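Explain my protein.
***
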Amino acid sequence: MLAFFAAITLYPLILVVSTALKDKLDVTVSPFSLFSSVNFGNLSEAWTIGQFGAYFFNTVKITVPTVVGVVALSVLAGYALARFEF
C-alpha cells in the first residue's frame, strides 16, 4: 500500500523533472513519457530568459523572514505553554 501511494506521489515530481529535461519536440509528441534525450540547455534558458534568478531571489526574500518569525513566535508560545498552568 505504501509503495502505491509513493508511486502516486513521486510520479508528478518525476514528470516535472523529465519534462524540464526534454526537447520541445519530445514534450509535444509524448508529454507523459520519460525523456529519450537529456537537454540541460532548457534549464539555463529558463534561468536566463525566464528570469528564474529574480524569482528565486524574491522567494528567498519572502521565505527566510517568514520562517524566522514563525520560529521565534513558536519558541515564545512553546515556552508559555510549558511554564504556565491553565
Helices lie at 2-21, 24-29, 41-48, 52-83. Residues 19 and 27 are 7 Å apart (CA to CA).
